[in-house]
Design brief:
The protein is globular and about 55 Å long. Helix 5 links the parallel strand 4 and strand 5. The model has no long low-confidence stretch (mean pLDDT 91). It has 7 helices and 6 strands; from the N terminus they run βαβαβααβαββαα. The chain is 35% helix and 17% strand. The chain has a 6-stranded parallel β-sheet with strand order 3-2-1-4-5-6, with helices on both faces. The longest helix has 13 residues. It is an alpha/beta fold.
């Protein structure tokens, strides 16, 4: 009998807030790469977004949990939120590799992060520990050596925060459960 390794996708990000674009890309990656599970991991402190503090971590975790609900093959983790200091990808990959020693780990990265990838902490070790998968929300992916999920999704967390701050609706941009949590916690009103 042949041993088949579990295939796990790690989807880190600020998820401030999580939106349908995140979910569409995660579903596309799950199907295209035949992943057993996609784990959404809200960042505690993003080392690349230190200039703009996000919504409280526990609220972002709650939004992720609400957005994915009981969707088969989707789960979430608060591993980065519980870990002090900046949320480095290598630490997260090592955490999940240790917890799942027989799994093949895929790490999702936005195409907009590729130029700065060489600056990531322990990038060579990270490349050894996980297979990068590039998310190209604009549909354009100029990477030859990495798997790329191409999907035109014109939704951004920044636009959602700006719409809320301006008193505009975000319905259809985020799941209804996330919209309710944004309202409940009064998020993004003062941006």
């Amino acid at each position: 009998m042949r041993f088949v390794r579990r295939r796990i996708g790690l989807y880190g990000g600020s998820f401030d807030p999580i939106h349908h674009g995140h979910l569409i890309l995660a579903r596309e990656a799950k199907e295209a790469l035949r992943l057993d599970e996609v784990i959404f991991i809200p960042a505690g402190v993003s080392p690349h977004k230190l200039h703009a503090p996000p919504a409280p971590a526990e609220v972002r975790v709650a939004m992720v949990a609400a957005a994915i609900g009981d969707e088969a093959g989707f789960s979430w983790s608060d591993a980065e939120v519980r870990r002090p200091g900046p949320s480095f990808a290598i630490d997260t990959v090592r955490h999940f590799a240790t917890a799942n020693p027989d799994a093949e780990i895929f790490y999702f990265v936005g195409a907009d992060n590729l130029e700065a990838l060489h600056t990531w902490k322990e990038i060579d070790a990270l490349r050894e520990a996980a297979r990068f998968v590039v998310f190209a929300r604009g549909g354009d992916c100029k990477v030859d050596d990495l798997p790329c999920i191409r999907r035109v999704v014109d939704i951004s967390s920044t636009d959602i925060r700006n719409r809320v701050a301006a008193g505009r609706s975000v319905k259809y941009l985020v799941p209804d459960t996330v919209c309710a949590l944004i309202a409940l916690h009064g998020l993004y009103r003062n941006e």
